[in-house]
Amino acid sequence: MKNNKNLSPTFPGQFSDWNLYGSPLRPCHQDIAFLNNYLMQWRQNYQRSSIQSILLGVTPEIAEAFSKDKDQLTAVDISKKMIEKTWLGDTPNRTAIEGSWFNLPSKDNAVDVVLGDGILSIINFPTDTMKLIKEAHRVLKKDGTLLLRCFCRPSQKESPTQVLSDLKAKKIGSFHAFKWRLMMALHEDDPINGIAVTKAWDWFHTTFPNEADFSSMTGWPIQVIDTIRVYQNNPSVYSFPSTKEINAEISQYFECVNIEYGDYELADRCPTITLKPLK
What we know:
Order of helices and strands: HEHEHEEHEHHEHHHEHEE
Helix content: 25-40%
Radius of gyration: 19 Å
Distance between the termini: 35 Å
Largest sheet: 7 strands, mixed
Oligomer: single chain
């Protein structure tokens, strides 16, 4: 049975230093540029002096984009520890609260933008995905937007053996890109079953029992490599649904109006999707 993650979704940074993580797990400057361009266009199109937004999670790179005095950003995360370790800190126009993504702190039709980075991968697909989608639909204004960066499986699945081969050929640029490729290679064909994160840890630890040797082989810092230990004995199950699978589930509530990709490593698996509510 798939672990129910709606009570305590676990993103890697929850248990270690967020600064040890990098792209594609964290949004890079291209991803934030997509967000900043959207916010600029939004202000021009709607001629409003402020944007009322909800951030699902406490991604600091996204929070920094909401710096205008009149903007209001509320970040919601179920993990108090994640907020303490990752949040940039409250200001007059942004605050983080402990709460559920399925019960957002807002009235109906009151929010301009709901944002999330990688969040669909750490909740049950499609059951909890639909709970989140319905809640975002509830709080958004008719002209609002749901803006999500997603982690999606490639159309052509690769095997762990292929990932290992590219690793040894030094064709993988970072440990985080390696880890995400490994997770997607081990992912079940059905996104409902996803990938138990312990499976990734077991494969890595069996293949590379000595992390110091792995560090010497790749040149990656041992502190960064150690971040994979968050998956050891961890009951979480991740899902990496394709954009087609995502759109099929949410089409009753949202229309996909744009998909953008960067050009960094694995950017083709990390689209930023712009969704407009059907109201």
